[in-house]
Specification:
By secondary structure, the protein is mainly beta. The chain has two helices and ten strands. The N and C termini lie far apart (60 Å). Bound molecules: zinc ion (ZN) (3 copies).
Amino acid sequence: MNCPNCGAAMRLKDDADYLLCDYCQTPHFPDLNSDGVRVLGEPAGIFCPICAISLTHASVARERILYCERCRGMLISMDLFPEIVRDLRSRREASIDAARPPDLKDLDRQIRCPKCSAIMDTHPYCGPGNIIIDTCENCAQNWLDYGELDRVVRAPDPAVPMSFLPTKQRT
Ligand SMILES: [Zn+2]
Ligand SMILES: [Zn+2]
Ligand SMILES: [Zn+2]
């Protein structure tokens, strides 16, 4: 895309969540979309495992991810995922709906890792939200379908088991 200030082509800055104009140095932060994703508009050159169109560079909670503009799935590095979830959960509105059971049919789906093309490991996510997540250990990537990140973020905090509370509070 072009610089809103001078019209020169802008480029995506490595590891940043904005575009930068090389000519006038104006940074540009595209607006968040309805999924809370900042779509940075440059094709990543690797393809959505569902739609087979190119994923696009994007960011969520200021961390870079790859995003499918068609199915709104997200490829998130395993290193960044806990950080993203922590950040979004600290600012969330919890929702009881997010605690509904996972859709076990999703366990039968097989998709290929956008990076290495191996079949991804499809399993229930161990954190909140009851989602079925697809992961590639080799590439350290998580694939989240549309709405799954939102469920993880908005799930209520797990109840603290009684046995973990100091004895005084067990009344
Ligand atoms: Zn400019
Ligand atoms: Zn897609
Ligand atoms: Zn992979």
